[in-house]
Amino acid sequence: MRGLLIVISGASGTGKGTVCKKLLDDLPQVAYSISATTRAPRPGEVDGKEYYFLSRDEFNAWIADEKFLEFAEVYGNFYGTPLNKIDERLNRGEDILLEIDVQGALNVKRKCPDGIYIFLLPPSLDELKRRIEGRGTESPESLQRRLSNAVAEIKVGLEYNYVVVNDSVDNAADQIKAILIAERCKVERNRDKFL
Amino acid sequence: MRGLLIVISGASGTGKGTVCKKLLDDLPQVAYSISATTRAPRPGEVDGKEYYFLSRDEFNAWIADEKFLEFAEVYGNFYGTPLNKIDERLNRGEDILLEIDVQGALNVKRKCPDGIYIFLLPPSLDELKRRIEGRGTESPESLQRRLSNAVAEIKVGLEYNYVVVNDSVDNAADQIKAILIAERCKVERNRDKFL
Q1: What CATH number does residue A185 fall under?
Q2: Which ipTM score applies to this complex?
Q3: Which of A150, A175, B58, B195 has the smallest number of CB atoms closer than 10 Å to its CB?
Q4: Do A151 and B195 touch (CB under 8 A)?
């Protein structure tokens, strides 16, 4: 079976990093995708382990050749998720975990619709919702802005496949593990079992 | 959240009944759907518990009113899965498990596309496949017939959502439990979480 491309995303503050670390600790068969970057290696960092270290020209060439699933500039350095490495590894049957910001994940989804897109929600969204809907002491402008932000979040989250409320790292990781088992049972991933 | 309609099916000999019993034992929140029948109650059987006991005229009226998800005649008695009771219970948030034969399940799928359709495979299908594909000592006609039967099975199974190989009751039940957790995380079942 082709490996699973697991994309975990969510607004900042939802604890993506902690949940991903727990999953990688618990699931040795799942590998973390190594990014490419134009920043210089720090002492001890090895090309192809922590990152693929590229010159700015090499990075630009990768962009031009559409070798990235997604890329972004952060504090003057470029970071990208290489497409070809992921495809190779998925075809070898490896499961690959990507932790990407909300918009980056949707860019990946357009290129890799067979990935599993999991949207982490903070446990406090219900509380936020009640605050927005409830009798507000806020100004109408402030209330409107907060509602708009929440609606933007809706629109993004609804394009994912799954939503997991990160009320605790263990609960969230358990639900994601169940999602991975279920995805492996999907008929479209098991056509070979039907001859 | 609306309850899950869980439909477990598979060719005879795949152990559907045993897997369903295990699930009902382990998951107290999942209820088994009570069928309607025209056969007479046996001593101790209670209307609305083991079955909904209907006269033949009542049963025909339910058919005419499209009250059945599916129905079939077995040894001169009619058995059917009532549609309205299931819908009521799903709307109350109950999860409902149906164990139905292969064709009956696909009839249900046409009426209830939001159900979860799980196809159980016997562990020996790979072996069967190898036997069919392998150097045969069977006559070409016999080989062709077996291949046709297998292809018919493919076509039916591919219309389901999930496939679970029943290599052991515990493994199969665990995979189905994971499928239920994953289904509850699907974005389309959690639109209320996005405001």
Answers
A1: 3.40.50.300
A2: 0.78
A3: B58
A4: yes
